[in-house]
Amino acid sequence: MILSDVDGVLTDGGIIYDNQSVESKKFHVRDGLGIKLWRMSGGMFGIVTARESEIVKQRAAELKIEIVCQGSENKAEQALAIVQQHGLMLDEVCYIGDDLTDLPLLRKVGLAACVSDAAEELVSEVDLVTDRPGGYGAVRELIETVLKGQDRWQDVLQVYLEHAEGKSQ
């Protein structure tokens, strides 16, 4: 299972409000495909974020992400509940974050990751720092790294390409 923060990881951390107080965020399309590839490989993917946003619900629905926890002030506690619900333990989970609110959870998971532009305190404590910053394909990079490390990337890529080619014919 991979769990991810949103602001600063799946987005660049910017939050834009228009004159009607409508919030918007920018997501990277490669992260979306990476999540799809992860799920095709049999992996579970979820979102754990301290903020609440309708846009996050929309993006999660678009990507068919069923594990979506918003408004989680205690991310470690929320993640523990998620993994127990799925019959896992925290050491079977990868979490990717970017700021101090992620540190307690990062200290408990099996694979702790952060984006390249994360707070300095995270960089020194995680197992993996992506080359890409948050909102620019860092989650895709993480997923590729994990699948390649498990020697499963080529198999997942092959299944994806066969599926994509079958749809276009």
Notes on the protein architecture:
Helix 4 links the parallel strand 6 and strand 7 (111-114). The strands form 2 sheets. The protein has a 6-stranded parallel beta sheet, sandwiched between helices. A two-stranded antiparallel ribbon has the order 2-3. It has one domain: Rossmann fold. Helix 1 (29-40) packs parallel to helix 6 (138-149). The protein has helices at residues 29-40, 54-62, 75-85, 103-106, 120-123, 138-149, 153-168, and strands at 2-4, 16-17, 23-24, 45-49, 67-70, 94-97, 111-114, 128-129. The chain starts with a strand and ends with a helix. It is globular and about 45 Å long. It is an alpha/beta fold and 169 residues long.
Second rung of CATH, namely the architecture: 3-Layer(aba) Sandwich
- CATH class descriptor: Alpha Beta
Report the β-strand fraction as a percent range.
Answer: 15-25%
Give the domain tally.
1
Spell the H/E element sequence: EEEHEHEHEHEHEHH
Radius of gyration: 16 Å
Euclidean distance between termini CA atoms: 33 Å
- Gross morphology is globular
Helical run tally? 7
What order do the strands of the largest sheet run in, or round the barrel if closed?
Answer: 5-4-1-6-7-8
Unreliable residue runs = none
CATH superfamily: HAD superfamily/HAD-like
- How many E strands? 8
Question: What share of residues is helical?
Answer: 40-55%
Mean pLDDT: 95
Structural class: alpha/beta
Tell me the CATH topology.
Answer: Rossmann fold
Largest sheet: 6 strands, parallel
Could you give a quick summary of the protein structure above?
The protein is an alpha/beta fold and 169 residues long.
